[in-house]
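Sequence in, structure out. First:
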Amino acid sequence: MSTNISRRKVVAGAAWAAPVVAASAAVPAFASSTQCEPEGSAAYTISGTAAGAKTVKTFKVPAKVDKISFTIIGGAGGTVLSDAAQGGSGAKLTGTIEVKEGQVVEIVAAAGGIGKLVNGRPSEPVTGGEGYGNGGSTPAFTIPSDVIAEVNSRWSKDSMIKRPAMYGSSGGGSSALVVDGTVVAVAGGGGGAGITVAGGSNNVAQNDPKDGAYYNPKAIDAGWRPRNIPISARVVGGGGSATAAAGSDGIEGIDYYTEPKDPTTGASRISIGSAAGKGGANGTGGAGAAKPGLPTGNRFDTIGFSSQNNQVLFSSSAAGKQGGSGFNGNGADGTSAYSYQLDNNDKNTPETVYPGGGTTGTPRHMTYPDVGFNFNGHQAIVSSGGGAGYGGGGSGAARALSAILVNQKWNGNTAPNGLRQNISYGIQAGAGGAGGSYLASNVIDGAIESSGNGATGAGVRNPGSVEITFCKRS
């Protein structure tokens, strides 16, 4: 996702310096008898920490200092997938204000958000970057114990479709400049990037290679995008970037089922979007993503979304949350959804297959220990957090979707040899929106643009920063 956003000049008295701003006293202007000169190096430079904590510095305006110039950068949103969508970038604010000796100046540099991988999977909750306002987190979620018990009663061993909860990325914190208790500038943080994880039944028995003698090359599955097609920003959805006074919305990701395909173009006919949170603006938190719908019935006589064939499908979804309001609005925390699949067919009835998926040769009668792992599972997802700011960004929606293949039995079998049907799951964490940014109306030559610091790799927090330079009389 590109963050090369054109620089936008801030005009004194612009729309975002309206009613809410008027409620706080403007930083007073002070005349000086002698022209001050900018010092050649910064007086203070601070950054948020790699551990996720903000850095705060307070100082008094020294004698003969009439102006301070600043560069303020908000914390970046995190990402889980290094080769796909990146976290949203924090805002970069620049400008100058007039000050008076003895005034108390507070500067706050935010930490960035983060996404973490555990054994190659996004299975760890993460906190948002701390700042003047905090980025949205991905809170810990546990699949209900009764669901786990039901799945384990049918298949007690581990499997690729029995998953712990998985997590999106957290949002970046906001950085700020405050003089004598009055907010002068707030740089919004970026939203966390989304994720998509999918899986389902394999058309092979336990411990069998895919190219084994009994594998059926004509068998299809109920899953999402084939493994040989890489995950991209289009599939996942990047975090919203703080590019102007209003934070940008997170980007929707779109994934799709492998089957059915359009007979003319070969393109998938069923797509599934991951709704993203909205950006904060003008001191009001961005809306959380709308609650995703859950399809029902059968589509194109191929993929079903309702329980059938003595196989239980459960799906759920949740809307994102709204970001916090005010100068120190927090990014919204992620929300959660879960899914599960149960096989209620007779465990004593084997699946019978012939070499190469044919109908001749020596049959193999596969008992439940050979195939049960394909049909019983549970999954959960927590969506990505919004960036903090002058109105925090909303969080993405969460959806956990179960499906079943309706036009084939497992491994492409035909009745009566086949009993069960392939199932799948797909879980989506929508991306978070960016936080809003603010410059007081008396800021000289103020500008807001993207800092371009959005996270491009898992396990890394790209922090915000504040740099202060004095304009001093001799």
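Second:
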Amino acid sequence: MRVCVLYDEETYGFTPAAFLKDFDWEMITLSRPVKNKLAALAKENRFDVYFNLCDGAADEDYPGLDVVQALEELNLPFTGASSNCYDPTREEMQSVAGANGIGFARGYNVKTSDDLEKLTSDLRYPLMVKHPRSYSSLGMTRESRVETADQLRVQFERISSEFGSARVEEFIVGREFNVFIVDNPDDLSKPFVYPPTELIFPEGHDFWHADIKWDYSVPFEFREVKDAKLILRLQDVGRRMYLAMGATGYGRCDVRMNEKGELFILEINPNGGILYLPEEYGPADYMILYDADGYDGFFDRIFRSAIVRQKMRAAKRAK
């Protein structure tokens, strides 16, 4: 299979060579505007599938949603999130979860100090104060977990002054897990869910924040979940959230379990990091390797699903 790896200009030395050794592949770096370059690539007919790793967020100055929209308009077979679920807000996720009976950490997007007390009055402490979209643990520190109204105000002002607003939500005291869900090309209504992993935090920490996420000197562990019943529960809630959101390609759900054993999704990340080097593995890499088929199985699922979805789009347009 001929694979076109799409990446932004700031590659930081990234290469998928170790992962795609069994494929005929080429990496193409994209800069804006992207549609003309993608159209030119399509005309060359050199690739069977486009492995899209462009994940720029709305407030970042590199390609992301515009790449996905161009791939859809050109009807090219591509991996990853579609435009309908590229960068959903926490509030959108919370609404979808609630409508489908899925536990989700309750919270609000708060824009002003005047709204802070009003919107959060029905939330239970401890609370978390996050970036409004909170990708990559941006802006999160140990102090992001707050126990009092005074602490809440301090953290709200810190986040909102930098990012325009803040996501304030209930902190679920307990354990944290990741669930990785991938399209099943043989039946898109039954996505494949990998064995989940548990985040084992360093002593004195009970959530993932920037100080430990990006400091590789801090002892931190992902541990495969072994409890058979818990595995099934985590896989079920991840699968349901993936389908309810209309996610495509693959996605990672972050899940907390409280002291009663109840599960609450924190988010579904439709553009979770993959293909990190072994010393930098992210949760998705670990979960891919928990599966006997490893990366071979992962690539088979996402590449074949990309082609299946391309055919579905073509059939829909032909009507």
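Remark: Residues 294-318 form the longest helix (25 residues).
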